[in-house]
Amino acid sequence: MIVIHLNAFLFACGHHRAAWRHPQSTVERLGDITYWEELARIAERGKLDAIFFADGHTPQNVADGPRWFFEPLTLLAALSRATTHIGLISTVSSTFFTPFHAARMLASLDHMSHGRIGWNVVTSMFDAEARNHGFEAMPDHDWRYARAEEFIAATLALWDSWADDAVLNDRAGAWAMPERVVPVNHRGEHFSVDGPLTVPRMPQGHPVLFQAGASEQGRDLAARRAEAIYAVAWDLEVAQDYRRDILRRVREASRSDAVPVMPGLVTYVASTEDEARAKQRELDELLPAATSLRQLASFIGQDCSDWDLDAPVPDLPPLETFTGPKGRYATILRIIESERPTLRGLLGRLAAGGGHCTMVGTPASIADRMEHWVRNGGADGFNLMPPSLPGSLEDFVDHVVPELQRRGLFRREYESATLRGHLGLTRPECRRG
Amino acid sequence: MIVIHLNAFLFACGHHRAAWRHPQSTVERLGDITYWEELARIAERGKLDAIFFADGHTPQNVADGPRWFFEPLTLLAALSRATTHIGLISTVSSTFFTPFHAARMLASLDHMSHGRIGWNVVTSMFDAEARNHGFEAMPDHDWRYARAEEFIAATLALWDSWADDAVLNDRAGAWAMPERVVPVNHRGEHFSVDGPLTVPRMPQGHPVLFQAGASEQGRDLAARRAEAIYAVAWDLEVAQDYRRDILRRVREASRSDAVPVMPGLVTYVASTEDEARAKQRELDELLPAATSLRQLASFIGQDCSDWDLDAPVPDLPPLETFTGPKGRYATILRIIESERPTLRGLLGRLAAGGGHCTMVGTPASIADRMEHWVRNGGADGFNLMPPSLPGSLEDFVDHVVPELQRRGLFRREYESATLRGHLGLTRPECRRG
């Protein structure tokens, strides 16, 4: 039997960059914790595996729209008290944090939530973020991945510094056994940390490690360390290629565990295809054309300010001749080739989820496509990226989830109370040095 | 009219080192978030100004008893959702954190709690903690205080990086005004941070700064920066000296604000003096004598393992001749001189609150003494250190608080919804560079 895993990736007013401009948007509530509690409860009503937060360390261009508000670890702590079963995944940057802080906060959260925490390891991207953490610019890719590797090793060691049975609560004797709470004495290129942690061993053993490996080093890191993987796949073929590659690397790393691969997925759901397309168009039309065209110009390396918004996008030069960043350019070429969109349609696609897959349609047609991806090796689940919140998340939970449940592809009730349980992952042994 | 400020300093099973050994102790619940929620609600029922958490980065001797469990920032996030009015104060170490992380998490919490957050700045103490954060040993006192000074400056600058009116939520225009969200470009000896923060300006302007300055540098830092001050005072005379000194330094720093000074206070409350003393003795008798005697030996620089536990403590050599750390030794001399305790009584005093004041008695007699301290320049309030939890906190809230309220010394209802409001502090202006 196929079981689909579903995360809700919650971001500001939604993943569509113009979502906050909608008259009914939640933009006034971004600093209101009850807004995030409501979203978490909608996801939990849908029995999703987890909610997930990205993170950034610079506000970027605040005129264009909101990106960040609450810091994700404090946010997840609050949300752990508004929910009972759903997993709670936070991004923590291995470039900007240090292992002791990350290990301690995530451990605290895993206790608080009774075993529902996941950690999405990222190495961060922008110079402006690096300059908030003492760097002059973002350290290069190799350095960041070497640090991430060491960061994970040190963090796992700290999480293993308390044996499962270390705490005795023996009122006439010892609170905990000193010989079961041991230093880790990590000495590496990037970190020096003695341990032990201040927090006893966690309900899940340790939080579930997520990673989104894209580059060669990222894929290798994910294959060696990640217990679940986020992916970026515009279409099934890309998804299959990525999943095949990453699972090969997992096997080569001598791991026998099943590592769920979850591509991002933007959905516009309605009771007819036309209505679903209208929902998408409504958001696309809120995009300020000038800003979007300037951004597209930077992606494709040519001015497009006088192109007709409602005409098909003109043909672009082939990938081989393009000298800018190729990944996004390749995605743009694929969108144009497969969908022949108008210029406004292309801007809308790029404004919601970037290179991630978008599915527009009825609950049945979207469930068909999701099932097709899962049955054909493209995914073990999806990282849902609702274009507008709470609407797109509610549409998915109330209409697509029941359709997946009817097909036996998704749980009707939680069968576990931990994120590991939802994902079918085993509790790791405590490995003492 | 005199108004007393009251914080509840929540620590493990209570501040008495043997509290966890009591048959009814909460030691099994330290990792259960509902235990901390219950404590926070008891304090809120008593209309206290705030609850307060210390922090440490090493578990110390885990056989002797529990010290830490939840990390305090994630803990406060959860507690902000279980309470509505009470202030929430976390310790954050300026030696182990960096300004961007601290500013961002505390800002997130201030939004989440609608303006109830306080930050107790500490420079940390132990080599074992330093070795969890990349140091070989704890950096020296001067270095730590120079770093703390710069840490506070950079953090305040980040908190001012968003103007109060920066966010517009203008759906047809800008989310926020870029010219009102500005870099801080801090370049110092210890930190380099560009800003701006990712979090808009907070309900309180910024969290309330607490400090517990003891050394010369600590007192100067507190006088320049703290908005409220924790103190250590064994008796009224020490409290008066400290408060007089710190308020002189506040004036010398050209500050006109009233800075509440709050000494720590351990209380044993019961309906008769005898019952109160019996409560204290019950905890003292749970102390493992051998461990306590070893500790006392280290404090006084001589072996005391064969002294009689139930006889008065023998006279000790005068302070001038003692070559170890003088502060604690002086406190021990004062306890012996003023109370002529048995050895067991002395061990008990040292095991609950260390050099802080202890009051044992009826609600009226304790309220008398608190009032005396406040009317005679010893304190603007107290940082309550319940020796056992939840019992000692409940005793105080249910019996001493009503007595203080009857005397018009303490609020009957919250008159504000922010920590600044409770403490009578003004909301700071946003100072843009």
Describe this structure in words.
2 copies of one chain form a homodimer. With 433 residues, the first copy, chain A, is of the alpha/beta class. Chain A is built from 14 helices and 11 strands. In chain A, the strands form 2 sheets. In chain A, strands 1-2-3-4-7-8-9-11 form an 8-stranded parallel β-barrel, surrounded by 8 helices. Chain A has a two-stranded antiparallel sheet with strand order 5-6. The radius of gyration of chain A is 22 Å and the shape is globular. The two termini of chain A are 39 Å apart. The mean pLDDT of chain A is 95. The interface between A and B is large, with 72 and 72 residues.
In short:
The structure is a homodimer of 433-residue chains. Chain A is 39% helix and 12% strand.
Index terms:
14 helices; TIM Barrel; homodimer; Diverse_substr_monoxygenases (chains A, B); two-stranded antiparallel ribbon; FMN (chains A, B); LLM class flavin-dependent oxidoreductase (chains A, B); 433 residues; monooxygenase (chains A, B); 11 strands; 12% strand; 2 domains; alpha/beta
